[in-house]
Amino acid sequence: MRNLHTDEIIKNIKEMCIEANYKLASDVEERVRGAYERESSALGKQILGQLSENLNIALEDSIPICQDTGMAIIFIKLGQDVHVEGRNLEDAINEGVRQGYEEGYLRKSVVGDPLIRINTKDNTPAIIHYEIVAGEQLEIIVAPKGFGSENMSRVYMLKPSDGTEGVKKAVLETVKLAGPNACPPIVVGVGIGGSFEKSTILSKKALTRNMSQSSPLEHIKKLEDDLLIEINQLGIGPGGFGGKITALGVNIETYPTHIAGLPVAVNICCHVNRHVSRRI
Amino acid sequence: MDQYINTPLTTDKVESLKAGDYVYITGTIYTARDAAHERMYQMMNEGNSIPINLNDNIIYYLGPTPEKEGQVIGSAGPTTSSRMDKYTPLLLDNGLKGMIGKGKRSKEVIASMIKNKAVYFAAVGGAGALLSKKIKASKVIAYDDLGTEAIRELYVENFPVIVVIDSRGNNLYEIVLQSY
Predict the structure, then answer these.
(1) Do B148 and A64 touch (CB under 8 A)?
(2) Domains of chain A: which residue ranges?
(3) Residues of chain A with C-beta less than 8 angstroms from the C-beta of B143
């Protein structure tokens, strides 16, 4: 049993919210910068050049990469031998988000009631996904998510007979419908299997996976590779102004499902695919 | 074609712009996004005046991050325009000439743009740090209670945008897909 004080959790979450919004993880940054050489459209190249320059300015002049600093999506893996002391864990996580968004000069983009729509003015509450695992460590992923791309995400409840082709059709349709709205070049997170809600969480989790790591499952890796090629044949291009680079990567996560179903969730993220992870 | 224009955006300037043109804007523009549009729309429908003069002006769909000491504005890239579609024809009927955002527009907006001779520009989504450097002055002029969604008056210099839909209804997003 290990004691872990919530002050430690608050401090880490605060720092992670700030870090995520000023500097891309190196795997995402490499994809953004590398896209320039691979694009052939002149306007597309110009846009990609600006995205690289934008990353430089964000760091050098300390300005968030994008003005939509997102709703804070947080994945927690809590070791079952950890004893959290201090405050309630959920309150501590939200306190970390509050401090991070305030001290980091990040935008407060959360409304308290989805219909009354009054801004909570501190970007809380966060959206928190908990997992209880073995061990005595706490693993945290902070993934601030912008809603330009979130709004273009979709869930499909396919039939088992739709198979791999059905999954491809769903992903391509989602990307086509998103078009220029989701700030291409995009990153595509796909969750296949589970249930209605499980597939969506998998698709979000997929976005936080290192982009240089393919799925360890051979058939899923092939699906990731094939989808990336087909998406980049759509012609949407950087900014939606035409070109070869519509997506920077496709990450797919899977889970067992019911004999009657094939849920597929497609979570679209813009090129500012932010995620920071820490183990404490 | 690269074009340099100054605000106010008069009809002759609008008509000189074609879908696909790369345009550098200098002058005063205004910010408004979802909540400010909702309020202006309500006020206009109730016959009240709104806090900005729309005539020959440009609205930038923007909700910036807070500025730090010494900065004019925080990160300042465009938000998705389609959420403003419901309110836009009324603003165009009242003199609005230009909009800066990103993403598709509705048929109704495009028809109103043709009728009122207006232009829709896109700025590069996700380049908010870069775009903030082109904004030389910023002040909240209305709806301060809306925080990031308040209406701001901006002075921009060579603010880079692309004409997506021109005043004849040509649409760059559709044109580029035809070649694939």
Answers:
(1) no
(2) 2-20+65-145, 148-273
(3) none
